[in-house]
Amino acid sequence: MSKLTPKPYISEIHAYVPGKAGGTKPMAKLSANENPLGCSKDASEAAAKERENFARYPNPASNDLREALAHHYGLESAQIVCGTGSDELLNLAAQGYAGQGDEIIHVRYGFAVYEIATRKVGATTIIAPDKDYGTDVDAILNLVTEKTRLVFLANPNNPTGTLTPQSEIERLHAGLPENCLFVLDQAYGEYMDDDGPSAFDMARKHDNILITRTFSKIYGLAAERIGWAYGHADIIDTINRIRGPFNVTTIGQAAAIAALKDQQFVIDSRAHNAKWRDWMMQELESLSNHGLTAIPSAGNFIMVIFAESEDSLSAATVNGALMDAGYIVRHLPGQGLANGLRITIGSEDENRGFIEALRAILESGGQ
């Protein structure tokens, strides 16, 4: 008898590797782009009130949350769908519009979930060359064929933090065929000065754009896994047909609604991030003589590239030394960034401690 085996395209998937969470000793976790300020007190209180309802299924369509999102962003609630983090929605977009024989494009150094979502449906991954670790619109358009069904693009990009101007986003979409879904992943959108209106206007005008967002980043609700997306009614209908029927928990829905109302927390989080991201960039630039380059970021993290020459340390060596010093960052060899470390902007103490530890490692030659 033949052995039970999965589909070959499933066997080719490299499972997503999350950022390390810590070990036996206290560690500063700067690997998962979490909000160092936590979450809104209102969100915590709203979540606590729902704990007595564990025996009841959550609202299957997240109606109240969709209405809250529609009110906040000036959108149509019927064109919003919520998911188990934006990851679920990214996967459902691929599942709804691509399959074997189709192609899905994403940029080099793009979010790891894009390739996983592509392979899960048996489609072919097409990787567009980067431009200074960011998006090269012409490179993407040059790869579009009659088989292209999706283009995934994160803006700001994860893991490099690069920002693609809105004009380039619009030029990219204009160059795509009408039967190609353009998925604009804005997981870090709230960290931008322009928090989404231009992108949402695009999605309102066209029937092949899906904007995805999450409550895991600036809202600090990563543990609850709450994502949402906005797009044409036909796209939302497709996703609703294949998503889990109770995919966002009751606690998650309540916490997200409360978090959305507490915009002062968002303002404070954005200000903290901007202040310490600028400080971190200056400190990293002061260490450039040790063979590292910090990529300007629009998110809540910074990607640092190491020259890895005979006169400088490798990213892997620095990563290990930082772990020994009590700092967890993100090493991403599986995404073609074996020479890079992604560092989350943390609390003041974590940021200062990290730079002090990094400087000591570089000046000692890793000893």
What oligomeric arrangement do these chains adopt? single chain
**Class of secondary structure makeup:** alpha/beta
Please bin the fraction of helical residues.
Answer: 25-40%
Intertermini distance = 56 Å
Radius of gyration (Å): 21 Å
The total strand number stands at 13
Question: What this model shows, in words?
Answer:
The mean pLDDT is 94. The strands form three sheets. Strands 2-8-7-6-5-3-4 form a seven-stranded mixed sheet, sandwiched between helices. The chain has a four-stranded antiparallel sheet with strand order 9-10-13-12, covered by helices on one side. The chain is globular. The protein is α/β, with parallel strands linked by helices and 367 residues long. Helices cover 39% and strands 17% of the residues. The chain is built from 13 helices and 13 strands. The chain has helices at 8-11, 41-49, 63-73, 85-97, 112-120, 137-142, 166-174, 197-205, 233-242, 250-261, 263-285, 315-325, 348-363, and strands at residues 28-29, 80-84, 103-107, 124-128, 148-154, 181-185, 209-214, 226-231, 292-295, 301-306, 327-328, 330-332, 337-344. A hairpin with a 4-residue loop joins strand 12 and strand 13.
